[in-house]
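quick q for whoever's on today - can somebody do inverse folding on this one?? i tried earlier but teh output was garbage lol. C-alpha cells:
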C-alpha cells in the first residue's frame, strides 16, 4: 500500500474473519488485506480456508489460516492464543460464519435447530469472549454479520431467522456491556447476496430479474458490498458507531409499500405474458407475485 492510502487506518492491524473460506467471508479477508491489514482466516473447511489464505498472500498480503469450529469454546480459546502469540492482540473480529438448515417450525428437528443456534448465535458469543481481552487492549471492534431475516421472518428455514435476530440483540448487549471497556460492537444485515451457495438459483431464466425487482437498487448484492461495510465498521473511521445495525440490502427492506398492489401507482415494469398468467388475482399477494421472491440472504 502506498503512503497516504490508509484512509481507513487498518494498515498492520490484526483482523480476524470467521467463515473466511468462501463467499462473504472470503471477500472480507481479501478486502482487509487490500487495505493493509494482517488477516486471520478462520473456518472449519480446512482446504478452503488455506486456499483463501494463499490467495491473500499471493496478492501481497499477510494471512494466517486456522481450522476451527466456532461453536467449540476450547478451540476458540486456543486459536485466540495462537493469534496473540504470533501477531499480537486482535484489533477487529468479524463474526461471519453461519449456516442454515431448512425446515418449517413444525418439521425442523430439535437437533438441527440447536445446531444452527450453536453456530449462528452461541458461536458469535464464544468468538467474542475468546478475543475480548485482546480487543480491550487495542480498543478494537466487533462486527457481526446478521441478516435482513433477523427482522423479516424467513419461512421454512428452521432456526435461521431466530438465530439472526439473536445476533442483533447480542451485538447491542456487547456494545452496552463492553463499550465502557473501549470495545465497539455493530451488526450488518445483508439482503440478497450472490454467493456460491445461491449461484445455481440464478441459472433459472428470469430469476435474477425477479429478485432484483424487489430491491430499490434493482440489483442483487455481491459479497464485496458486505465486505466494504465491514471494513468501515472495523476501522477507526467508525469510532463513534456503536450498537448500530446497518441493512445492506439495496433498499429491499424499504420496499414493502411498493409491493402492495396499487393500480396506477406501482413502479414495476410490464410483466411477460407468462408472468401475467401466473400472477394472483388483482388485490392479492405481492405486486410481482410468486414464491420465488421470498426474501433470502443466499
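ok took a stab at it. sequence:
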Amino acid at each position: 500500500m502506498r503512503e497516504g492510502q490508509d484512509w481507513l487506518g487498518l494498515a498492520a492491524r490484526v483482523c480476524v474473519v470467521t467463515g473466511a473460506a468462501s463467499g462473504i467471508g472470503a471477500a472480507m479477508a481479501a478486502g482487509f488485506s487490500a487495505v493493509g491489514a494482517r488477516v486471520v482466516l478462520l473456518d472449519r473447511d480446512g482446504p478452503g480456508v488455506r486456499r483463501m489464505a494463499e490467495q491473500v498472500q499471493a496478492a501481497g498480503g499477510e494471512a494466517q489460516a486456522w481450522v476451527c469450529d466456532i461453536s467449540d469454546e476450547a478451540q476458540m480459546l486456543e486459536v485466540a492464543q495462537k493469534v496473540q502469540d504470533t501477531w499480537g492482540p486482535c484489533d477487529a473480529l468479524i463474526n461471519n460464519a453461519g449456516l442454515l438448515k431448512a425446515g418449517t417450525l413444525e418439521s425442523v428437528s430439535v437437533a438441527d435447530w440447536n445446531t444452527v443456534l450453536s453456530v449462528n448465535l452461541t458461536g458469535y458469543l464464544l468468538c467474542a469472549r475468546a478475543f475480548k481481552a485482546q480487543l480491550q487492549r487495542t480498543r478494537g471492534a466487533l462486527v457481526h454479520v446478521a441478516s435482513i431475516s433477523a427482522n423479516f421472518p424467513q419461512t421454512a428455514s428452521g432456526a435461521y431467522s431466530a438465530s439472526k435476530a439473536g445476533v442483533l440483540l447480542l451485538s447491542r448487549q456487547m456494545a452496552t456491556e463492553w463499550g465502557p471497556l473501549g470495545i465497539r460492537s455493530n451488526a450488518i444485515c445483508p439482503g440478497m447476496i450472490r454467493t456460491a451457495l445461491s449461484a445455481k438459483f440464478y441459472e433459472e431464466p428470469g430469476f435474477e430479474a425477479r429478485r432484483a425487482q424487489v430491491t430499490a437498487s434493482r440489483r442483487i448484492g455481491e459479497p464485496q458490498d458486505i465486505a466494504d461495510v465491514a471494513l468501515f465498521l472495523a476501522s477507526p473511521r467508525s469510532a463513534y458507531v456503536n450498537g448500530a445495525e446497518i441493512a445492506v440490502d439495496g433498499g429491499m427492506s424499504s420496499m414493502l409499500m411498493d409491493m402492495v398492489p396499487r393500480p396506477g401507482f406501482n413502479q414495476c415494469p410490464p410483466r411477460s405474458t407468462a408472468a401475467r398468467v401466473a400472477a394472483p388475482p388483482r388485490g392479492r399477494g405481492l405486486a410481482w407475485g410468486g414464491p420465488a421472491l421470498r426474501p433470502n440472504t443466499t
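fwiw Strands lie at 14-18, 38-43, 62-67, 92-95, 141-145, 184-190, 245-248. also Residues 270-298 have pLDDT under 50 and may be disordered. so keep that in mind when u check it
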